[in-house]
Amino acid sequence: MNKELEHNFVALLEEHQNIVHKVCRLYTNHREAHNDLFQEVTIQLWKAYPKFRGDAKFSTWMYRVALNTAITLYRKSKRTVNTYELETFQFKIKAEEYDDTEEQQLKLLYQAVHQLNDIEKALVFLYLEEKDYREISETLGISEVNARVKMNRIKNKLKTILNP
Amino acid sequence: MDELELLKKHWKQEDAQYPHVSANDIYKMILKRSSSIVKWIFIISLLEFALWTGLTFFLKDSKNAQHFDKMDSDYLIIPLTVIGYVILAYFFYLFYKNFRRISVTDSAKVLMENIIRTRKTVKNYVLFNLIFMVVSTMVIMYIEFDQDQALIRKTQAAAANGDIFMFYAKTILIVAGVLAVFAGVLLFFYWLIYGLLLRKLNRNYKELRKLEM
Q1: Which residue among A61, A64, A128 sits closest to B11, beta carbon to beta carbon?
Q2: Which among B18, B24, B88, B29 has a CA at the least distance from the CA of B57?
Q3: Cα A68 to chain center, whole Å?
């Protein structure tokens, strides 16, 4: 691996690191696990980087690697239960910006998302990142129609979790 | 408002709240070792190949086998050995080919399928080895009881003393003990691979398959 490749990679990842943070945000529930997954995604990205041709956007390419690592390659994710603690670094809502009910609602919403399974989280993640169904279906390897159907089911599921 | 829309609204605003990982930290991270399941599957698979192949060697070189070699059995042993090596080479080639195909930039489903396929190759190899061993043992036992004068004398002596039942019981116990050890090793690997490493993958793969039905 030459120095230039390494340099380019580090610069690109530093710029787009929030994508990785956001994946970690959905798939882990405390800082230590977050950092651990961040590290593994970084290693996987770096290992795959020499084959990155630049015909796709770096960020689009990152979505795949980051999600694949979280869903398939990463081993230590047993601790994603309901004990989600809102750590300061992860989730700070300025009181003056939002009213209490919205803040509370948001908190519950995150807890509900954490109860979804790995595949459902992936769909939610791509949806929140405003990816179209074509890209969602290609990232996961399912058909576009099924991605749409599943997304609707997830919305209903979230509703049920939030309003039991 | 739709629940997810509310989340989406905040999703983008959260960007500034994540801790910034510096370039320096990223440099440090890429030097560290991966702890991905693919790496562990590779290591464990190599161990399995080594173990089951090594076992065949061990059995072949043991005293019994040397004693067996003296008997008129080349017509059987040589083809069996050659077949063993050819099969090993074939499975190893398949394993390597499938392993190389695993790419983190594939879609989630294809990635999972490639990992499962790689594992299946090793599983088939182990299965083949077990069948091979059972068949070989049966063939060897048959030849021993048929040609080994010492064994034939022992059997006859046992029959004459009325100990024939004990004699067979002992033989069966020994064979059962050896089988239990094999089964134990097999279960250990099975637990390691399917219990620890592939549990999450299998669960998620099932979930993806369910979407396509």
Answers
A1: A128
A2: B88
A3: 10
Per-residue buried b or exposed e for A87-117, using 16+ beta carbons within 10 Å of the residue's own CB? eeebbebeeeeeeeeebebbeebbbbbbebe
Q: Name the band, by pLDDT with cuts 50, 70 and 90, for residue A81.
A: very low
CB A124 within 8 A of CB A114: no
Amino acid at A31: R
Q: Is the pLDDT of residue B145 over 80?
A: no
| pLDDT for residue A29 | 85
Distance, CA of A23 to CA of B63 (rounded, Å) = 59
Alpha-carbon Rg for chain B, nearest whole angstrom, is: 27
Q: How confident is the model at residue B138 (pLDDT cuts 50, 70, 90)?
A: confident
Distance CA A64, CA B104 (A): 8
Decide: A106 and B3 in contact? Cβ < 8 Å.
Answer: no
Write out the CATH class of domain A94-164: mainly alpha
Average confidence (pLDDT) over B151-167: 80
Question: Considering Cα of B168, then B173, then B176, then B178, what sign does the dihedral take?
Answer: negative
CATH code, A1-79: 1.10.1740.10
Total domain count, chain B = 1
Domain that holds residue B41: 37-211
Whether A85 has a pLDDT exceeding 60, the answer reads: no
Q: Is residue B184 in a domain?
A: yes
Chain B residues with CB-CB distance to A105 below 8 A: 6
CA torsion A96-A100-A106-A112 (nearest 10°) is 160
CB contact under 8 A, B211 and A142: yes
Write down the domain spans for chain A: 1-79, 94-164
The answer to whether residues B30 and A38 touch, using CB atoms and an 8 Å cutoff, is no
Q: Decide if A43 and B200 are in contact by the 8 Å CB cutoff.
A: no
